[in-house]
Amino acid sequence: MDIQPMLRSLEQTAFSQWVTLNPFGFRVFETLHVIAVVLVFGSILVVDLRLLGFPSTRQSFREIAGDALRWTWIAFTLAVVTGFVMFTSKPVAYSQNPFFLIKLGLLALAGINMLVFELVLVRTVERWDRDVPTPVSVRLAGTLSLLLWLSVIFAGRWIGFYEPPGPTVDAATLPDVFGGAPF
Amino acid sequence: MRPDWGSLRLAKLSPTQARFRGCAARPMGGGMLEFSRWLEGTSLSEWIRVTDWIIPFCQSVHIAAVAVVFGSVFMIDLRILGLAGRSQTLRETNRRFAPWFWGGLAVLLATGSVLVIGEPVRSLMTVSFRVKMILIVVGAIIGGAFIAAVQRRQISWGAAQSGSARLIGLLVLLLWITIIVLGRFIAWDPDIFGDLSPYPG
Q1: CB contact under 8 A, B185 and A31
Q2: Distance between CA A155 and CA A10 in Å, rounded?
């Protein structure tokens, strides 16, 4: 399926134009995106480290996960919404940005890891909820989650640094939409 | 190589230097700009800029470390607000999360230093960066004082649940969110702060 025509029509919408042309359109959403990403990673890290039994298993996993994951979901929703707004500003360019595609792939992998954990591994939680070392499978899920979310941050940061191949454009000849500093 | 500040000031100004002369009227403007330009000219700074993965790499680690610091502050604040870890005492919650606060700050300092050395004018010559540094010192002092007081049992559980403790907890969260926002604002400083921004152009 060729989604390029769809992306081009998205780029023509009034909203997309507003995000691109308003000097603060993109920036407001980018700033909110950073806050959301920080809260997603910060809260999921708390759960992942507990899955690894670090620094201790003295607190119930279910309590920690219940307290922290609530915020992960709130922040993740904010990240998806703000991320989508940023995407609408240049959908065609983002769809051709390898780091954007890698980030989507990593998010999918993190989602699969979470599903396996929630549907399979969590069934045995009674046995390792507190005061005992967590099973190897649970530690593996925690490690994968940690590495995948860290990679999501890296891929996300690299999106803005990617320059598509082709003739280099002299920045001075472009309209000064973003006030010069692109990052 | 050390900068010769005296001769820099006395030397006949090149057109570029003359253009930046107006910055001297602002607090720290002149000296800081000269320092930034000197730093930018060092081989270390150049190496950071021309090695194209270093800046995105340090920015990525920086964001992850912000998440570690913010996550630890967040979990301790949630405990104070009674929204997390209710089976744990404040001291237990503190012991679990406080080391990450300091570890994260150390990583922030390291990666942030690389970013400043790589692009000194872009970072040092902004309102955002300067206010951010002040707020980080404030945040670190509040965090350090709080962690130490809890470990020494100077903060009783009752006191930690009081209305004022909850308010302080919320203000500290707001402080760290402001620090995150200012970090992002460094890139757009002249557009956000207008004439207040010392960014030379």
Answers
A1: yes
A2: 24
